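Teaching note: in complex prediction, the entire set of molecules is handled at once rather than each chain in isolation. The prompt given to students was simply: 'Predict the structure of this complex.' The entities are:
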Amino acid sequence: DIQMTQSPSSLSASVGDRVTITCRASQGISNYLAWYQQKPGKVPKLLIYAASTLQSGVPSRFSGSGSGTDFTLTISSLQPEDVATYYCQKYNSAPPFTFGPGTKVDIK
Amino acid sequence: EVQLVESGGGLVQPGGSLRLSCAASGFTFSSYWMSWVRQAPGKGLEWVANIKQDGSEKYYVDSVKGRFTISRDNAKNSLYLQMNSLRAEDTAVYYCAREGGRGIEDVWGQGTTVTVSS
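The expected output is the structure of the full assembly:
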């Protein structure tokens, strides 16, 4: 099975900072990658799919890029409401549709 | 409003069984793949299983194969997860999710908690 890793595991940044989270697949997955946001105590929410397509209603400060094995999620200007854990997930070919271990983002 | 509502969680002893349900509303349930995703206390998300629109294809994570069975009843707009031979490591919040696109979990329920303990 394909394994997913994320870095860093946590980060602390100031409001307005540009934040980048990396996700890596152990094998190529083309662009079959999604990003989810889970705020503390809340249900996960889909942010991005197909590596770079923003889900409807998601603020434009979120963006995704990458293909193959290396992907990034960028928050262009961190806001207090972005405090959350972010997960990548691969969904190419057959399941399991493995999630990455998560990156916890908070405000400095 | 598109909605998923899970039920059936609770406390069960190791080796026991539990059946989770997920009631869907606000969309054409029979048109979508559906998934179960779980989250152990303080841990990350783990994809558990999914099922095709007509129930003809089912997939599982290795750790639950042979113990869990996913099923659906399109007439009742409902998704199920039968969990047998439960272990302590199955303790988690279990989320029902809709696959808006193949593998893309675009709608999530609020989750139901399963605790496996003696």
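Point out the following to students. Strands of chain A lie at 4-7, 10-13, 19-25, 33-38, 45-49, 53-54, 62-67, 70-75, 84-90, 103-107. Chain A has a mean pLDDT of 97.
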